[in-house]
Description:
The chain is α/β, with parallel strands linked by helices and 615 residues long. It has 25 helices and 17 strands.
Amino acid sequence: MKISSPEHLAKAAKKIGDKLAKFEATVSVCGGTGCRASGCMAVADSVRDELKKRKLTKKVRLLITGCHGFCERGPIVVIRPGDFFYSKVKPEHVPEIIEESVVNNRPAEKFLYKPSGAKTPFAKEQDIPFYSVQNRPLLGLNSHLDPTDIGDYIVHGGYTALAKALLSMSADEIIEEVKKSGLRGRGGGGFPAGRKWESCRNAKGENRWVICNADEGDPGAFMDESILEGNPHLVVEGMIIGAFAVGSSSGFVYVRNEYPLALRQIANAIEQAREWGLLGKNILGSGFNFDMKINRGGGAFVCGESTALMASLEGKVGEPRAKYIHTVEHGYHNEPTLLNNVETWANIPRIVLDGADSFRKLGTDGSPGTKIFSLVGKVNNTGLVEIPMGMTLRQLVEEVGGGIPNGKKFKAVQTGGPSGGCIPEEHLDLPVDFDALTGVGSMMGSGGLIVMDEDTCMVDVARYFIRFLKEESCGKCTPCREGLQEMDRVLTGITDGHGAIDDLDYLEELGNWMKNGSLCGLGQTAPNPVLSTINYFRDEYLAHIQDGKCPGGVCRELLEFEILPDKCTGCGVCLKACPTGAITGELKQVHTIDRMLCIRCGACYQVCRFDAIER
């Protein structure tokens, strides 16, 4: 089908809507990467078989969607109407769920979600605290549409923003609307998107290029991946609008090769948009021509940096260049280039369709709109969350995240990925926006958020991220290359029990040198984990250096395990768990640890049920 005008688009949406209206119910199975790892496709097969067995295939639609967000509870199934929510679903649960929620239109009580401490289970998706405190204009459609079918996107209003932009607005009007919205780049820098677009349009050059940065490399981050998997046409539509605004006819989606499902979905979306006349020549009869293609990234973290990404696109080594050369003027092949990340592009259709004022109703004055975070670590509800800018870290951790598991105490939260800072409890009431996070030594980054509890060693955390960044540094500039090597050496000495007090001043001096002298954002922000942990958790560094102790019980070289005679029951569980035979003792008698044989693995500490082992 070729859509040649806005009127044709409206007719197509109605035709598709009429077809879908024939279904009396929908069984939505989360098909995101997280749920696939939990066995969602076997659940989908079971649903398909059950519907066929009951002869319901013409009345009930099976929908395999993108990520629903609540990854901790996958596989997830939602049945509409009713919005009945089921988590950790197994294939054998399906017959009863279909019987109750599809045939009888009531919740299957046995399989409803009931969080720890709740008196009654939650039947409806929107009532679950994880979802109820979010606001999800970007992720909300994920559970309602088939990401492989352009028709599903169109029936939900897809490409109407494009029609408005191409046929009812000028390029200058689009840019002005994006500027008024206050949208800031969601890739980490937070630069005003409208200003970037305006600079690219005004730059001198024969050709202009539009690029989507989907090279999401932060450990534990999967925001962009989930948008591409669950609603790829949202990104395609945003890019076409951006291309029209700056005067580009060609674009790229740069996706990391480690995202096979996202790659498949965005490739399919581009092909479908082309087949339907929404990419290519004379889009929607407007006379505007634009097309795009995919480039696969090889996994280099530094290629998330704009100039390194463009070098990679050109077939060169992915190394950054000096920032005073602006990519909006001299980018891909030294021509004006507009680069935004996945989430930034995904916001564009909403801004164009509903207007800047509508977009600004959420968020703060300085950081309007919503932000998607991957909430991971020591928190009960891990997953993908979308919140209005300005929500506090405490709300994120305690209300959306459901607090710290196993009754442990909160210690810190790291925002901004491996180059972000670790924020302590004293700043938990800080609003989440670009400026507030920078003010406490961290940053927004692309949206990674890692929660840590009392058993976390902050020195070890700093070392972990410095080692990651050391491996991912391109090595082009001396401050980053040598600074990360030196930081790793000093931090390793501290965690091994060979640290000195002077190391802390040295690390701070080294960090400031790297911030001021590094070529790109990787080196400039790399010291954040070290500087923030020294600032907020200096006592832990001192415990390692002065007392030879690791408060978190993580650094093996500083651990000494001891069995407490007044608590040991002689059950023998620790003896069986010890891999080296370092624990001896008779049944129902106090056991002992031979420190010459102990390798400090902590197996005994983990299995003891009587708190009889001290470290």
